Amino acid sequence: MSLADSISKTLVPIHKEGYPFIAIAAVLTIILGWFWSPLFWIGLFLTGWVCYFFRDPPRVTPVKDGLIVSPADGTVCLMGSAIPPRELDMGDQPMMRVCIFMDVFNCHVNRAPMAGRITRVAYKAGKFVNAELDKASEHNERNGLIIENDNARIGVVQIAGLVARRIVCFVKEGENISAGDRFGLIRFGSRLDVYLPQGTKPQIALGQTMIAGESILANLKDEEAGDIVARVS
């Protein structure tokens, strides 16, 4: 393996959504450094952090009917019954909700928790309170998806946080998506809520650290996972 290959395999890819922010940070670094050299090093550090924030590493997703994987990197901050957002039109009965909080150091690329067809995409403007709070599900800016397949119908909601000011969704209604596929991104610090059928038993604990596209949230078939095939995405 050549040195160039070694370097390319070591460096983590950056999502294209981050390119404008990296360019802005780099230009500001040069301008500030022109006036006062210590500002250059501060700007260089911040530019490096922006690159780090928009990293988009490949993930190895377990593929098996019934498995629900985490849609986000972060920490499980809430778990329990809750009524889905009204705009998703999933009814007014409680569903099992798992909430994953992403801080500014987590990878913010969001991935599909299961394979299926996207039957609804619904955006709602709102506030920007701390995404770790329960009320963020109701009051904050958010974008929700419904994913359906032959086995289940689940909701996934991107929620803006205290410093997040932009929710990006890459998919549209009617598209098919595979588990672990990228479907969106949130800038900078936010939360993902997953609404599962009532009665689902999550295979996680509060405070657990999740990896998008890899960590298993639940098994809707309520059986031993057994042999699992994985795919890289």
Produce the secondary structure layout.
Elements: H1 3-10, H2 19-35, H3 37-53, E1 60-63, E2 67-69, E3 74-82, E4 95-102, E5 109-111, E6 116-124, H4 136-139, E7 142-148, E8 153-160, E9 166-169, E10 176-177, E11 182-187, E12 190-196, E13 209-210, E14 216-219, E15 229-232
Antiparallel strand pairs: 1-15, 2-14, 3-4, 3-13, 4-12, 5-11, 6-7, 6-10, 7-8, 8-12, 9-11
Helix pairs in contact: 2-3
Structure, described:
Keywords: Cell membrane, Decarboxylase, Lipid biosynthesis, Lipid metabolism, Lyase, Membrane, Phospholipid biosynthesis, Phospholipid metabolism, Pyruvate, Transmembrane, Transmembrane helix, Zymogen. InterPro entries: PS_Dcarbxylase, PSD-A. It holds the Pfam family PS_Dcarbxylase. With 233 residues, the chain is α+β, with helices and mostly antiparallel strands. Helices cover 20% and strands 34% of the residues. The protein contains 4 helices and 15 strands. The strands form 4 sheets. Strands 10-6-7-8-12-4-3-13 form an 8-stranded antiparallel β-sheet, with no helix packed on it. Helix 2 runs antiparallel to helix 3. The longest helix is centred in the first third of the chain and has 17 residues. It is elongated and about 60 Å long. The two termini are 23 Å apart. The model has no long low-confidence stretch (mean pLDDT 84).
Task: Report a brief summary of the structure.
The protein is α+β, with helices and mostly antiparallel strands and 233 residues long. It has four helices and 15 strands.
